[in-house]
Specification:
Shape of chain A: globular
Distance between the termini of chain A: 23 Å
CATH topology of chain A: Cytochrome p450
CATH architecture of chain B: 2-Layer Sandwich
Oligomer: heterodimer
CATH architecture of chain A: Orthogonal Bundle
Largest interface: A-B, 20 and 15 residues
Number of strands of chain B: 4
Order of helices and strands of chain A: HEEHEHHHHHHHHEEHHHHEEEEHHEE
Number of domains of chain B: 1
Strand content of chain A: 5-15%
Number of helices of chain A: 16
CATH topology of chain B: Alpha-Beta Plaits
Number of domains of chain A: 1
């Protein structure tokens, strides 16, 4: 792993990318006030028990870290709620992301990929994978599905960056001043997004269209329409989760094929192996490296006793490098069979958009391999990772 | 040999119908379902075992 870390300047906070862990699978850190789970079987156990490991984490976050303002609500935020509400809300959109439904998007994804690569070529100079393709492709696809103008994508990127690319440390024990700054940095983009999506949702109520936003404003749960706030939050999560993650997946996959050229040669020669390349990329460089849960009772996990009402970080990325589950975990090996990685999560919150992410990954990588031989990073223009510890992705990936 | 999906466990990962399309399909919400009565022909036995070992929720059973 040494060469990978040095070659791509993997930040220190991405500890699990820097090599599989040797410490205990479950651990409390007094410095941050957080429990962390790193082991594969322990993580599965937690994710399979959503009653004990609740997604309603706001309940246990210290009040000073939460905004008092009425602008802030997580109502309808699919990732932050538990059954039975979660089950009902998830059902509203799950049919929009099935493999069969997203398969119809394949020609559009292929056209977009070619258009974006053509535009980069016409502009001249080298391809910067993130700005030229990995960002605009998924954001355009999800904007079109949702029904918001993809021409606003620079705005979406600004919001996503403001929300996600801030912290280099996850902690409950920050100073009051740091907490206030963190909060403000998140509240401004949240407010702007809420207003933006609220305007579009209101328009769909007046003038329905064939898009997901219309589906949300018309949806009924238990015979009642969703409150505006829920529609907006639901749309927000689809818009954000629908592109930030896939941007990371695309960049990471190209990085893997740069680091392991023999695997690139293999994928190039056998395009049927590309889905396995995407799966291994999700294991090796897990885009959403951690999810958070709150314990609802005292629970034994991995030989430790976690008290009730504690915040627990579940490190999917670390579990995906657990040598008890994956042999040679620090080697990128698309031939793993089976490859039961936790890159899309596990259990009831399993990534709704997985079929879309897999499709976008496969189509884009196929076209990149067609048009670039070899796919190589530029040694004179270093790769830059997103600093956020819970996110694994590059924000700058220049190709030669 | 027959395959069966436990609907309580299935979360719609879709590995089964990807790896063994002759045995599994998907419903309108992306959850896996067994095609026909689940009987596995001798040629499909390898695919059936692959689907079982790849199901992240361990929702598939061989009877």
């Amino acid at each position: 792993m040494t060469s990978f870390i040095e070659r791509y300047h993997v930040p220190e906070q991405h500890f699990w990318v820097r090599g599989s862990r040797s410490g205990p699978p479950v651990e409390y850190d007094a410095g941050t006030g957080l429990w962390s789970v790193y082991g594969y079987p322990e993580l599965r156990e937690a994710l399979n028990d959503p009653v004990t490991f609740s997604s309603d984490t706001m309940r246990v976050v210290p009040k000073e870290m939460l905004p008092e303002s009425e602008d802030f609500s997580l109502s309808g935020f699919l990732t932050q709620i538990d059954p039975p509400e979660h089950t009902k809300l998830r059902k509203l959109v799950s049919s929009a992301f099935t493999r069969k439904v997203v398969a119809d998007l394949e020609p559009r994804i292929a056209d977009l990929t070619h258009e974006l690569l053509d535009a980069a070529r016409e502009r001249g100079g080298h391809l910067e994978l993130v700005t030229d393709l990995a960002y605009p492709l998924p954001v355009t696809v999800i904007a079109e599905l949702l029904g918001v103008p993809s021409s606003d994508r620079d705005l979406f990127r600004q919001w996503a960056n403001a929300l996600f690319e801030r912290d280099t440390q996850v902690s409950l024990n920050k100073s009051t001043e740091e907490q206030r700054q963190d909060l403000q940095a998140a509240l401004t983009p949240l407010k702007e997004m809420t207003d933006y999506l609220g305007t579009h949702a209101a328009e769909r109520r007046r003038q329905p269209r064939a898009d997901l936003l219309t589906r949300l404003v018309e949806a009924e749960v238990d015979g009642e329409r969703l409150p505006d706030r829920q529609v907006v939050n639901f749309a927000m999560i689809l818009l954000l989760a629908g592109h930030v993650t896939t941007t990371m997946l695309l960049g990471n996959t190209v990085l893997c094929l740069d680091a392991f050229p023999e695997q690139q040669a293999r994928a190039r020669a056998d395009r049927a192996s590309i889905p396995a390349v995407i799966e291994e990329s999700l294991r090796f460089l897990t885009p959403f490296a951690a999810v958070t849960r709150a314990t609802t009772r005292e629970v034994e996990l991995g030989g430790e006793t976690i008290p009730a009402d504690r915040l627990v970080m579940l490190w999917l990325g670390a579990a995906n490098r657990d040598p008890r589950q994956f042999s040679d975990p620090d080697v990128f090996a698309p031939g793993r069979d089976p490859n039961p990685h936790l890159g899309f999560g596990h259990g009831i919150h399993f990534c709704l958009g997985a079929p879309l992410a897999r499709l976008e990954g496969r189509v884009a990588l196929n076209i990149l391999l067609d048009r670039y031989d070899p796919l190589r990073t530029d040694p004179d223009d270093p790769v830059a990772f997103i600093p956020t510890p819970t996110m694994t992705g590059v924000r700058h990936l220049p190709l030669r | 040999m027959k395959v069966k999906i436990d609907p309580e466990r299935c979360q719609g990962h879709g590995r089964c119908y990807d790896l063994a399309p002759a045995l599994f399909g998907e419903d309108d919400e992306g959850y896996g379902r067994v095609l026909g009565d689940g009987t596995v022909s001798p040629e499909e036995q390898r695919a059936a075992r692959l689907a079982v070992s790849n199901c992240p929720e361990r929702a598939i059973e061989i009877l």
